[in-house]
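G., before I forget:
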Amino acid sequence: MAAAALGAFLIVWSLVPLYNMVRVALQEKEDVFSSNVIPVAPSLHSFWTVFDTSYWLLAKFWTQMSNSFWIGVVVASLTLIIGTLTSFTISRLRIRQGWMLTNAALMTYVIPMSFLAIPFYGIMGKYGMTDNPLAVIAVEVTFATPYAIFIFQQYGASIPYELDEAARIDGASPPQIFLLIYLPLMAPALVAIGTYALLLSWNEYLYAFLLLSTEGKLTVPVGLGKFLNSDEAPWNYLMAAAIVYAIPPMVIYYAFRRKMSTGLTMGGVKG
Amino acid sequence: MAVTSTIENPALARAQTRSVGWRRLTRSDRLWALAFATPYVLVFAAFVIYPICFGLWLGSDPATYRQLFADPVYPSALRNTLIYLTVAVNLKLFLALLLSGFFMRKGWLTKGLLVIFILPWAVPAIPGYISIHWMLNSQWGLLNNAIWSLLQADGPPWLDNSALALGSVIYAHIWKWLPFWTIILMAGRMAIPLELYEAAKVDGASALDLFRHITVPMLASLYLVCTLLSSIWALGDFNAVRFISGGGPALSTHVLATLGIRNAFEIGNPPLGMATVLSALPLLIPLVILLMRQLKKGQVQL
């Protein structure tokens, strides 16, 4: 009985803000300013407005979706490349200075991302890199790689080192071992970290907000943030756009939840 | 974050893996290692070390700190940061500890509930926070609409009152991050050997005994790591305050992370913004040192 009550409470607790999102998105612009709890005349009109971008604040919505997507893909790829190369050097080539790389990763991991925003913006300004997606990609890769290195090292510890030795006796060079033995055996970790980096980038707000300014170069969260500052505040369009933007990561979470072992899903998340 | 059972000796295990197959690197190996490590070293130097040095230089003038401490917004931002760190983080983790036990129950009903419970974490932060912001609008928000239709009374002005606005930020933080920490602590509970519980039950221990004498000591070091890590992340959290209260009303709910960005970009004084951020170091550094010491013990891995 107590369990059922707690369960009911948790459902309400979890769903109320999400219900609010759907509720507002289903209303007409003028009905948003009313005292109803359930939409009076629900319609999908705001979603159609998002799809055909017929409202001025939404004009670049799909460009922004594709910006978010491509930045995410590049961040995930670079994180995987740099992360695997580094963890291979530390745990398979076993260089003596490996601890320095691990400590560098650990140090980056414990610096709150927002604390470096001001100097990072200054540096990018010096290089003429503001309003350039590459600057956003650089910072997101920087903050996604440490976690990638930790996970790759943990996961890599389960791959027997004898495999590397056997390959060496057969004359394999380090890049051959990396490409033909290490990477294929790391596949589950690669999927997990690729997803982690993609979501980190998809969700990131502060750096994209500071570094990007042209309407057509923004990522979606920055575009949504701009809505809040407009005088009209068309909440139904904003919520409909927010729902469309939230669907891909939700699909990814639920699709990968079972495939990733518990340990690996953990990081999918750094705020 | 992974949890290894406390029964094994992690230091011993590490010493073993290190001695197996440890050999001298050949010259070509060393060149390859150099080539493989270069990308990360470059990223670290260009985007971590360089910004840190530049930031320290920006915030190196004592006069900036005099200006900062004279700012009437600063003490309230510092106080809010401390409240955010102590109340939001600890309340959230304590709830996560209890809920992780609840979600260990068997059956499809619990599994289905967990799927719904995960939703706030799966939805990106910005849409969730924007929705909460509008939900808490005192005039047209869902919450006060519901209060009106149930009680025929006006709800409180959630975001127009300093204390309520800060409470709203804390609520949003807990809503967003509770599922994540619950799952982490569930993983920790799963790593506890079941035999311990069975043996204790045979000896007649009650559910409360099991929690107090097995779960709590076995989860203690993980719980501490979670608290430290969550505090570090909360210290750098910008989005919750930005989107829930926007620092308002009247700049009364800023935290150091949002005030730093405001001083640097809205007021247009980067050294002042940097000084705001650097003034959080006395909070950050002890958290980091404690975290490192916990991680060195090896019972919990990131």
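The two ends of chain A are 35 Å apart (CA to CA). Chain A has two domains: 1-43, 55-265.

More on Monday.
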